[in-house]
Amino acid sequence: MYIGLEDIDWGSLQHANGSAEDVPGWVRGLGDPDPEVRRESLDAIGEAFDDQGSIYDATVAVLPYLIEVVATPGPAGRQRIAELLTSIAEAGEGSAETELSEYDRDDEDWVEMHRQTGRAYALIMDAAPDLIGLSGDPDARVRAVAPKLLLAAAVTDLADLLINVLRTEDDPGVRRSLLDTLGRLRLDDDAITYLLSLGRSAPASNALAALIAVARTDPQRVPLDDVPILIGHAYAEADPVFEPAAQQASPRESLHEKRRAPHCARLLEDLTGPLGPRVAERTAIITPLLSSPYDDLAGDALYAGYQLISQWRGDYREAVTRTAELLDRSQPFAERAATMLEDWGPLAAPAVETVAEHLADLDARPWRDGRPAWNRTGRKLHPYLGILTNLGDERALPLLLTALRQQQRPDNIGFGLARYTGHAELITAEIVPRLPVMKAGDQVPFEWSSLQHALRAFGPAAAPAVARLLGSRLDDDSAATLGRIGPAAAEALPALRKAAVSGYPYLAVAAAGALWRIDRSPDALALLTARLNGPAAGNALEEIADMGSPAASAAPLVATYLNAPDPHWWTPAHAALTLWRLTGETERVVPVLAAAWHGNLYTRTTIAEAATGRLATALQPLFRAESGADRRFSASADLAASARVPLDEHLLKLCQALAGSDG
Hints:
The chain is mostly helical. 58% of the residues lie in helices and 1% in strands. It has helices at residues 23-29, 35-49, 57-71, 78-92, 102-105, 108-126, 128-131, 140-152, 158-168, 172-182, 189-197, 204-217, 227-235, 267-272, 279-289, 295-311, 317-325, 331-343, 352-363, 383-390, 397-405, 413-417, 424-431, 446-458, 466-470, 476-485, 493-500, 505-519, 524-529, 537-547, 555-559, 570-583, 589-599, 603-610, 613-618, 620-627, 641-659, and strands at 14-15, 18-19.
């Protein structure tokens, strides 16, 4: 087993912790009769070589011996070696085809690790015939790890192999591993038919694992009638004989004291996620489970519901109501449920009264350290308050103003206050004395942008803020705010004229736009068109569009940007919308906007917000298609989770209105 082990110059090789000179002793220790020596050797090898995908020259050198150890029945702890081999193989998948970037090719260490990763993967692939035998190993723990190792080693015809093993395997933990790996393979009709026959077998967790495997290949073929009953049985199962490798604790584990069936931890998500557009069926499974008296099951339903609602459109009123009922459970549970409700924005409306009651309870508690119970951290609004604010509920405003008056207040509070335009004068009076004073060289705090957002939303009602704004250095935020205030900000004109010709493109554009909004400055258009070739071109086009027909003379110039080379489509989209606003022309505009709509998901809301009249009529096919889509347009966008549902619901509402517009 150890032939050639001592012939290798281990001292010249490296692993994660440095010199590999101790590796021969560890390898021999794997077969030592003393269990303590075996344990220490396993621990040392794991620490040295399981390094989050990093592969070293010592990894390549030790692999033949590890493969021999794991392929030889007998020594205890072989499942841990199999897990290590799986990790190494997964790190190497695709390494041969992956081209290093020019930046990476300049890093010698990275190039060397990439080379070693490819060598390690090739060794494991070459050993695949020897590793296949692990699927029939006498040790159930090794058999349970084998399917994932064989998958990582790219064993051919693996689905057929695993199905054949599954037909005779009795251990529930091993069967679960086989089924999980089958779910990662493309299955043929015979395999699917066989797995569906297991959908009513025991134990329930295995039956569900079979359905999950089918769902990942053909979600439409999964029968769902008895699934809620199966789930209840699965969560009542005793712990399996096979214990999987320990996983890093996740936030969901704080929702309950202990799981009844740890092997079911992500069962709901694994089943419902692949079902994709079967939204009604997924909702019917998840919603009742939110009311489960067992925290482990209700908590998993909460996460499965979050996954569903974040990605797919549907009727979630009952699910939202039941999620709000979870606010009565433990603090971690309530906080997680509240955060999810906050992320769902307008969809949280059915929960508003329940949330308001919980917020009132918090507000009634004594203050501690100078802060109310709903603002313990100071820097972030409590989710209860965030939910009401997202809905524009009047009960949130007094608390928002209380938070604003705190010495340490939430940085994003202005975005919430902006929703209460009906109280603009009151809110402005509270904001003005708390608006930061920015001097040259000061770093702009997020609070500055947040409060400016509110003032811009209030328009002329924010006029009392002018003096305070002029007491700070002018930037693009404050220039835009002064413009939105309008003629009441006339004393800012000298500063704005100076800023409009400055060397700061975004400030210059915001200042030029403000000049037009405040006194219809005749120089504004020329100042804006001068910025069309710079980084603030999109902003300049938006400002020109807002000028409307008085800027019609710029239409020929604006039209030249319809075909601007922009991989993200923003410049052509802004140019098209501007040209339409200036001339009412749709023939040249519509093809550009349609291309932008499909070329960059983020342009959709901008286009839908701007479209009216004949343009809305011309773009109706886009709006109808979006209105009829099941999947949220934001599901595949690179957005914070908290933005996905509100942004999509906003677009959906716009498109539903526009789809029925006759211009």
